[in-house]
Design goal:
Elements: H1 3-14, E1 38-39, E2 42-43, E3 49-62, E4 71-80, E5 83-92, E6 98-99, E7 112-113, E8 122-123, E9 128-137, E10 146-155, E11 165-170, E12 174-195, E13 203-211, E14 218-225, E15 229-230, E16 234-239, E17 243-252, E18 258-266, E19 275-281, E20 284-293
Antiparallel strand pairs: 1-2, 3-7, 3-8, 3-12, 4-5, 4-6, 4-9, 9-10, 11-12, 12-15, 12-16, 12-20, 13-14, 13-17, 17-18, 19-20
Amino acid sequence: MDRSTAATIFWHRFYKVADTRETLKEAMMLSNPTNCRPHMWACNIHEEQFMMQIFSLKLSNITATVDGPVHLYGYFAVRDHLDPLRNYIFNRTRDDPFIMGQDNGVDSDNSLIPMPGPKRGIGNQARVLIEFDMKIKNGETRDDDFPLIDGAIICSEFVLPNRVFTQRIEGDCGAVDISLALLHSAVEATVQVSISQVHGNGFSLSLYSYTSRIPEKIQLFDGFISKPCDLNRFVVAVVVNTPLILIFKIDKRDGSDHVPGCCAFKARTHGYEYDMQELKLGCTNILVKLSWSTL
């Protein structure tokens, strides 16, 4: 057995790749710990650590001939040392694909792949396995579909910290670019957004974040809001004592109103209470609740 084959078998077993279940761990698991020493606000037990932050997934090219919009489905997930089960970044079924090129938001980039995940922060104290199987829907059955990317890559914990780098993942019928960073001394931020007032026919909302003084942005949400709602929660890694900045932009469907807003939160390890800020953007009220947790 050669060295590369042995390494492949080792990582396959270490990350339990044959087990396709979703990670059992949730976000905010240590937001309110009970065993802090000496106390909650000067805790020596729960410490920040190396974390991975994925900034974007982008469809860089397609080599297959596709008629009309691209219908993308499949999954993109990470496995880390905390719980070697899938922590999904993207996960869509064939019956519910993401349709590329739908310009529903203020700052839509037609090549960006949405990232509803991760479900929790990604630990990077050890190497992280990134696993993917994404396809382009093309016909009536799966046999007609185009395989985009399929496989796995290992990301080392020994890379330059707090800098975004981009890696191209080549596949049979195209390629996907992943931009990510390893953050030293980072904690998990869980962002919850509530929209309490929606007037008229609704509006387009774009929400993105800047973390740890890194200039690249992370798109958290880009879509249409038709009624009061709570958005899905978002998990972002942030270097402790640096800001997490959230940028909101709303746009009326008729293009008559374009309103930006922002709020910032300084990262800490944990705490009993949420950090909260309320924004009034035009006729819309937005409540932002943010909790901090170590991994």
